[in-house]
Design brief:
Strand order of the largest sheet: 1-2-3
Radius of gyration: 20 Å
Order of helices and strands: EHEHE
Distance between the termini: 58 Å
Structural class: alpha/beta
Amino acid sequence: MSSSPPAKPAFDLRSVAWTLTALRLNTAVPATLAAELDAKLATMPGLFDDDAVVIDLSPLSAGDDEVDFTELVPLLQARRMRPLAVQGGSP
């Protein structure tokens, strides 16, 4: 009687600690974000270097303008950030 080994599962779940930069937005105004990011990058040119970032919306109050991700994501990508996730937002 031969028994075959158990089938290998299609995936595994593992707990992993990642180090990510959180970009905390205090405003949702793209022009303001672009200007301040450009000023920061002028003094620190390699600051992001294609790093993954988490967009943190928690500082924005409920009365702030809605975040336009179709404008925000390319704005960040143009400054060598790779938006990976969003936290602290509302539906």
